[in-house]
């Protein structure tokens, strides 16, 4: 399983109000910004900013991080072999395929396999 990027989640009421300070701290513009269901998201540096009404944000609070991976199927195989379980089945979003999984120790994480265009644009070549 190859992890390409990990985002710390920041929960905010207003995306536009939160971005100026993050631009200053990170020193760059958001790499991604999009709407999903009733929330708005922006990826800036190593933060995934999630904005919307508290009730809408609560639907996603069970995950402690968003992890971008090269192969979602390999993640599922590795996690289940280690005693983890998929808690939200695979679905698609504007960025690619994703699912939520609980690790054997109890941590719940969102795993995303980005569409190739995002990997090419955002992940530095190794």
From TrEMBL:
InterPro entries: Glyas_Bleomycin-R_OHBP_Dase, VOC_core. PROSITE patterns: VOC. It comes from the Bacteria. Residues 3-114 form the VOC domain. This is VOC domain-containing protein. It comes from Micromonospora yangpuensis.
